[in-house]
Amino acid sequence: MHLSFILNAFTVYIERVHYLLLFIIYHFSSFIKKPEMTRHLAAVRAYRQQDGI
Known about the structure:
The protein is an all-alpha fold and 53 residues long. It is built from 2 helices and no strands. It has helices at residues 2-28, 34-51.
């Protein structure tokens, strides 16, 4: 039970870092085209809905 709690917290942390990185890249990187990033975000959202989060 304790391990599952740690794992869950770790997953949430990774998820937040992932979104933070996406935010930074989306707003500050001129190397990545925004339509591609929008597609990626849509894919992430679809994955989360499929997972039931």
